[in-house]
């Protein structure tokens, strides 16, 4: 069983969608990644920071899902990172209503001693310098996966490029890939990103699925067509958690197996959006995941016998 | 070998994309459908209308591809339908610069005697009353496929609903499906459209692929990720031609086989957009199509062994 080290936010979110709104609920990239990865047989730990206002029940939720929390610093008298956002009617776009960095502003990540030899490191969305600091504390991981967002392209591009140059896999959404490379074609964008460092590029297209690029090979996983997306928050992180969790469990980081990891990530993300926040991921049974994988198979698998050359 | 009857425009197009522009070139829905279907062993005919200005070489092109043209009326002294459009930089949207209906304004379709027993009828994009007239002239086809567009929803909705109620399959793009049903979710939109008549609903999402719906089953075919889309004109018609051409050749209209038809349609459309107008389809060799099908297979096929229930 591989060790999976996760760095990212553990936070409070307040979310408004066309279907309702929440008060402060559990959120954060590392939370979603950890819960998603906990569907697999892995030894995982989160490196993050919270304030004294962070309830014990949330910590217990992580622990009960087999996630090591000794790397989550609790700042005495500090307040937990808070994000509030409102989704537009199409659920593809959102406005940030409020961001309170709080304890995140001075976060110095410390990797627990017994996770310094983690085989897989998942750098969730955070300041690139924090991601770099985690990388400096680990010993030769087999696979480093980076998630990031346009905010860091706008505000810390040079630092971001430095961390991009050091990772094996990057997950990024389509618009961010275009912004990073100034290429409209995702094929060209992925090629340019590979030249920046990562050997594998995952481009997430939301309801339009995800593409995995490696040299001249491409794999595509659709998103499951859903009657209703309830709350997209955390879908990308849940994808990343499924991707890395599956790779850690299977101990196989070949391109062929990454295809499966992309399918697992997509399946898990399709659950995440069914309810507010982490609610659906908290209740998710492994058996439900297995059935959904079968839906993915019937959604995409076909059996064409290549036809004989036509004769007119 | 099944007979495939195609009704649609045979026309002149003048196209401008970010990569260049053309003078009047061969275009029209039926042209693209016919050329695409000619990749298969089918006996096909086009029902359409052109003016006296339509060059013999274009007629020869259709004939040389095995398409029966006796149903293409040539109006003495008339001018051929002309459309001119300019694509925006993202190639997903376009402005119509000019539309000259010409001989299309008074088109009365006449189905040739030996195609009245066609097993498959492809109603290409045209006024719904013209599509209905063709349907009234054929004897119990096994499968009727309808393509249409938002223009008819805006201008002839009641006629369009009548033809929709009489077909087996509809192909429609995502925005049009939403407009027709007032549903944002494509799953819900497809369900509503099935209630209007068609047993099968194909929703085309351009660069994001195509979905095939039938009762509670869904199949998804991605679009091939291309480095560059050169000219999207005719891609939807080429898809329809591949879809119906393959079904006609295989003489199997089951849902399982329609999955393959969607893959063939998507493969053919991926060629169409590589050059201006019909150029790429005119030069396409069957062997090239076979290689691209293999690309589609490696793009989407995965092999997940469902994992044992986790034990923590």
Automatic annotation (TrEMBL), chains A, B:
Keywords: Kinase, Transferase
Family annotation (Gene3D superfamilies): 3.40.1190.20
Keyword Transferase attributed: yes
Protein known as: Sugar/nucleoside kinase (Ribokinase family)
Residue span, Carbohydrate kinase PfkB domain: 21-280
Organism: Gillisia mitskevichiae
GO molecular function, one term: kinase activity
Keyword Transferase: yes
Pfam entry (one): PfkB
Phylogenetic lineage: Bacteria, Pseudomonadati, Bacteroidota, Flavobacteriia, Flavobacteriales
Residues passing through the membrane, by range: none
One GO location term (cellular component): cytosol
